[in-house]
Design a protein that fits this description.
The chain is of the alpha+beta class and 328 residues long. The protein has helices at residues 69-96, 127-137, 148-155, 166-169, 179-184, 191-194, 209-219, 244-249, 256-273, and strands at 2-8, 15-18, 30-35, 38-51, 65-66, 101-107, 113-119, 140-145. It is built from nine helices and eight strands.
């Protein structure tokens, strides 16, 4: 076991482990550490704790010191200088006509390196750009190309749910997301509905993926003609078995009320298993329909006494056509 402290360099960045040494560090304290990029400022987000050796990347570096007021002042000055450097670098990219998009600029705490982050569709030859920037800022220049997910994390924005992006708010690291997760959750496979701002699958598909996998292992997959399996959580047995209730009646821990309930349930199961004979379906008798008068072979229905007689409407005779010739 190794004692470590978790430090984060950005708001929603990845947590890195460092050795606290003899320093009394608590969550929320600013720390100055040495990384592969140089001396940097970070914030402790995890209190000192012990972790297994296999979870630590060797060699484990030690925290140099707890941040002082001078370190905080230098950090603010570097942020202002980084914004100015970002504008200068943007103009130089336009002069060289490079197919790249700058995202942010950052100074290390000891001013030993100026780091630019950019995105591009392919590889970019920026050697001439680095020479111009090094001549302007008189320090080491580093250009880092990142993907579309890191671009959305750096810029931020709102998701389809109306809230801030998870990657820019609390996600420390990106986890792999596959289209199979959307299928397991019965979601629409329309790319416009399951893709985020970055154009990739939404990270929130990963949140409930483990729950759906556990439910499938417990209850199985649904299919046509397959009935639901009712299981008991305490005894972990299937109720459809013939000796299920008889085995439960032998338990000493069953109380009187439970015993009565089991007996009644057993009787209901016995009655339900007996198939009742199907009764013939009774046909409904049709009501006699009074046929109209004048039908062949049918006598007219007798008129009720006192009822007014219906007047018959006289037929209209068709006029005879005029003779076409004198002979007709």
């Amino acid at each position: 076991m190794v004692e470590v402290v978790g430090i984060r360099f950005k708001q929603a960045g990845k947590i890195y482990y460092f050795s606290p040494g003899d320093l009394q560090i608590a969550a929320g304290d600013g720390c100055v550490v040495e990384t592969a990029r140089g001396v940097e400022f970070g914030e402790a987000v995890l209190n000192p704790k012990e972790v297994p050796d296999d979870e630590v990347v060797q060699p484990l570096k030690q925290v140099l010191r707890i941040a002082t007021s001078e370190d905080y002042e230098r950090l603010q000055r570097n942020k202002v200088r980084a914004q100015e450097a970002f504008q200068v670098a943007g103009r130089k990219v336009e002069e060289h006509k490079l197919p790249m998009r700058l995202l942010e600029a950052e100074y290390t705490l000891d001013d030993s390196k100026l780091i630019f982050t950019f995105t591009a569709e392919g590889r970019v030859d920026f050697r001439e750009l680095v020479k111009d920037l090094a001549a302007i800022f008189r320090t080491r220049i580093e250009l880092r190309q990142v993907g579309v997910r890191d671009e959305a994390k750096a810029i931020g924005g709102l998701g389809s749910c109306g809230r801030s992006l998870c990657c820019a708010t609390f996600l420390g690291d990106f986890e792999p997301v596959s289209i199979k997760m959307a299928k397991d959750q019965n979601l629409s496979l329309n790319p416009a509905k399951i893709s985020g701002v970055c154009g990739r699958l939404m990270c929130c598909l990963k949140y409930e993926s483990a729950t759906y996998e556990d439910n499938k292992q417990t209850f199985g997959k649904s299919c046509k003609g397959c009935g639901p399996i009712v299981s008991d959580e305490f005894y972990n047995e299937v109720e459809d078995e013939s000796d299920y209730y008889s085995d439960l009646l032998k338990e000493d821990s069953i109380q009187e009320v439970d015993l009565q309930m089991l007996l009644e349930t057993q009787e209901v199961d016995k009655l339900s298993t007996k198939q009742e004979p199907k009764r013939p379906r009774q046909r409904k008798k049709k009501k006699p329909v009074a046929k109209s008068e004048g039908a062949k072979g049918v006598a007219p229905a007798p008129a009720k006494e006192g009822a007014p007689k219906k007047k018959r409407r006289p037929r209209r005779r068709k006029p005879k056509g005029a003779p076409q010739s004198k002979d007709d």
